[in-house]
Amino acid sequence: MAKIDSIEKLTDNRFLNMYLVKGHNSKGYHSNYMVASRAEQIEDLKISTGKNTPDGVIIYAVYGEKKDRVVLVRQYRYPINGFVYEMPAGLVEKGEDYHEAAVRELHEETGLDFELVPADPMYEEPRFTTIGMTDESCATVYGYASGEISDAYAEPSEEIQVVLADREECRRILREERVSLNCAYSLMHFLGDEDPFAFLGK
């Protein structure tokens, strides 16, 4: 098993930092590995804590009386200089439960209210998003959205369009648009089951 020899913090940003991790593996190969992290300090890295606490929360929200639309955001992202479809999501603040974060973030991003659906913890467990370059992990929550779309609570730095997509639109998005990986899998799931949350009771 590989071992870590040293960690150096390279940046001091609010939301994301870079760390240089030096280590060697069982074959004697020495690595200089760049890690992006939400951690503010070395002692906060998952390398240091050994804990998988969620940095963010992903929100799988269904909308409408017939529960036949899914809430998406079409958001501009600098790394691709374009828009991408995503599930609503956001960071979990220090001391905040990720369920509370989901309610807050959905309202901030979309103006909608959110009613959580109880789920077995294995469905909400924090999962690593892009483990090849970051230790970020996100929990996923499920529920029903209601109310009217509004951008009154959105961050000025965000460029977001809220989309209430029925199944036909979900198919079009998957065929024609740029889509984040977790969003694509959620849309496939939404298309496959008449009751999108039936699996939570299994």
TrEMBL record:
<dbReference type="GO" id="GO:0019693">
    <property type="term" value="P:ribose phosphate metabolic process"/>
</dbReference>
<comment type="similarity">
    <text>Belongs to the Nudix hydrolase family.</text>
</comment>
<dbReference type="InterPro" id="IPR020084">
    <property type="entry name" value="NUDIX_hydrolase_CS"/>
</dbReference>
<dbReference type="InterPro" id="IPR015797">
    <property type="entry name" value="NUDIX_hydrolase-like_dom_sf"/>
</dbReference>
<keyword id="KW-0378">Hydrolase</keyword>
<dbReference type="InterPro" id="IPR000086">
    <property type="entry name" value="NUDIX_hydrolase_dom"/>
</dbReference>
<protein>
    <submittedName>
        <fullName>ADP-ribose pyrophosphatase</fullName>
    </submittedName>
</protein>
<dbReference type="InterPro" id="IPR020476">
    <property type="entry name" value="Nudix_hydrolase"/>
</dbReference>
<dbReference type="Pfam" id="PF00293">
    <property type="entry name" value="NUDIX"/>
</dbReference>
<feature type="domain" description="Nudix hydrolase">
    <location>
        <begin position="50"/>
        <end position="200"/>
    </location>
</feature>
<dbReference type="GO" id="GO:0016462">
    <property type="term" value="F:pyrophosphatase activity"/>
</dbReference>
<dbReference type="GO" id="GO:0006753">
    <property type="term" value="P:nucleoside phosphate metabolic process"/>
</dbReference>
